[in-house]
Amino acid sequence: MTVKSPQPKNISSDPGIMQTRAADPQQSVWVGASAGTGKTKVLIDRLLRLMLPTAAGQAGTRPDKILCLTFTKTAAAEMSARIFSELAKWSVANDIDLAKDLHKLTGELADPHVMDAARRLFARVLDVPGGLRIMTIHSFCQSMLKCCPIEANLTPQFVMLDDRASDEILTECLHSLIADCARQSGGVLAKAFQRLTLVQQSSEISALLREMMAKRSKLEKILISNGDETGSALRTVTAVYAALGISQNMTTADIESAIGKPENEESLRAVARAIIDHGTEKGKADGIVLADFLA
């Protein structure tokens, strides 16, 4: 059967035509648009058109040969659900409705061969081992690492930690740290941890440890760059003091006295005013604290 083609419309006034052009799998396309304007729809239409044969006789791409990458799991799940919903509708649609859907999707009249392929596409996708590959960038990278663990310097059959397992390990590490400090109360680690507990609450200490674990590669580079390859942080600590322009034997009172010098005080007042006038909400609060301190 045939379906009459609608009259062409002005492309600039019809976003549907622009979406159809962007979904053409023969074109390499970058799409920039505001939220809610149909970017996900364009991606879904592009994927459907990739799998469909064309009226010109070009075969569609096998579903297992297509990879879609998104930023979030939510976007991946939404794309998958909407694609399956559309394919399920095609599989049971009558000729007229299916022809209209395919014409709207591709901008071309659908011949019986294309319509037959569209009806069978739902079953083809269901038969793909593991389903359609619509993945987040993180999960795709994880799959690549699992394919080549030795080359990536990883243990074969490794598994990724989820948030719950990560929190459990972090808690275990914190308990182990406290136990080590109790056994060696006079050690450097125990003294450092004791000072930390005076200025941080337990939840803040856990957050600090989590951040240190997340940035451990950067911390390692800092230690190595300062010659602390053995794990001692003495040279790094010295470098930090030098960067701050203070000596290790200075007390809090010495630092406050240095800050309170007239030439420093006026600069700090200007900084506080700038933060209060132009900073973020968190920044404004910090600026008020600084202004109160100077007062």
Could you characterize what this model shows?
This protein has 295 residues and is mainly alpha-helical. The protein has helices spanning 15-22, 39-51, 73-92, 95-106, 112-126, 137-147, 163-183, 188-199, 202-214, 216-225, 234-244, 252-259, 262-278, 281-294, and strands at 67-70, 133-136. Strands 1-2 form a two-stranded parallel ribbon. The protein starts with 14 loop residues before the first helix and ends with a helix.
Keywords:
295 residues; mainly alpha; two-stranded parallel sheet; 14 helices; disordered N terminus
Biggest β-sheet: strands ordered side by side in the sheet: 1-2
Radius of gyration based on Cα positions: 31 Å
Order of helices and strands: HHEHHHEHHHHHHHHH
Oligomer: single chain
Short description:
This protein is mainly α and 295 residues long. The protein has helices at 15-22, 39-51, 73-92, 95-106, 112-126, 137-147, 163-183, 188-199, 202-214, 216-225, 234-244, 252-259, 262-278, 281-294; strands spanning 67-70, 133-136.
Detail the topology: elements first, then pairings.
Layout: H1 15-22, H2 39-51, E1 67-70, H3 73-92, H4 95-106, H5 112-126, E2 133-136, H6 137-147, H7 163-183, H8 188-199, H9 202-214, H10 216-225, H11 234-244, H12 252-259, H13 262-278, H14 281-294
Parallel strand pairs: 1-2
Helix pairs in contact: 2-3, 3-5, 7-8, 13-14
